[in-house]
Fold this sequence. Notes:
Helices cover 35% and strands 21% of the residues.
Amino acid sequence: MKKRIEFTKDAFSNEKELTELTETACDMMETIYDDGDYPKLTVKRSWSEHNPLITGEIAMPSAYRWYLTRELRKLAEKGAEIKIFPSRPRLKSTDPSIFDNADEDDWDITQKKLFLFSPERIDISLDRLKHYTGSNPSEFQRYILFTNYDMHVEVFKEMYPDCTEPDQSVQMPAYHFKQPNNKGITLVNIGVGPSNAKTISDHVAVLRPDVMIMVGHCGGLRNHQDIGDFVLATGFMRDDGVLDEILPLNIPITPNHLLNVYLKEELDKNSRNYRLGTVYTTANRNWEFIKRRTVEQIHISRSVAIDMESATVATNGYRYRVPFATLLCVSDKPLHGKPKLSGEAQTFYQNSKQMHLKLVIDAVNQSKKAYPEGLPNASIRAINEPLMGGAE
């Protein structure tokens, strides 16, 4: 099979020919990669006055073929001239220079690009994703949910008894309800804490998912909240610390508006009590032991809930241009004489787990129906940095 392809809008005259063309292009990228080189794409956009030519290299294209197919179709339909060919030999994972090529500090944020990540970064992340989750990267679906609890995994497996799961013990097991073209849902049990939240979202972002949603529990911080109430995050107080040196604290992080609309509609439809507001994310599980200091920050931020992962996932969603949202359930009220104690916690978990996950999945299904090829993400993309197929 040849290892170079060029095509423009003149190369197809109907949907069938366009489908065949994009499938051939993806086959070629996979062949180039399997034969030991990184595939390179150049895209000439005649409609762009200032940046008509953009390029990019990729790795392991089979892992996110659905994304490449979708974006190539969009570009071809708009009239772009697309070329695909081998770029350079793949670096071995043992090559000392591999992390130099994966260094995100070398990003030029003023340069338009097809892909956020270098091929070396893609290779590293997808290998680590398999290590942490026990899943092949190609198994991941477009809609990704994060949880901290086995009970949500139990509910997910009850809802989707045919879902795939790891065949060995891993740190952050992933479960996949698969649908054609990766339009299903993946649930990952990420464990507790912002470090885990950063690790998994660093690597999942390489797959370019359409959605990331945190499905967790929180401490309620207001008088008029009850155990079992929900919190739909509209903002985040970043006290987790893990991304402070990478993304300045003065950059506002807000969830995807449409996802929040769908989540709110499901909460209303099911007559659930909930609060909208800021979620305070801390790295200190025992923050109550420095209560005065933490409560002062809670009051300043007007936070309505406290957890250990939401702001971290949200910040990485913002960094990597993935639409994100957070729906939490109040499991305790430590400032109001209702700390998380073992007996009460187990009762709460049993009463809340099914409704919590169902609300989120129903909202995801709303999103899929309204935007089958992905939510608009202009609010988290720089105007001078469109991704493949993005608007000007």
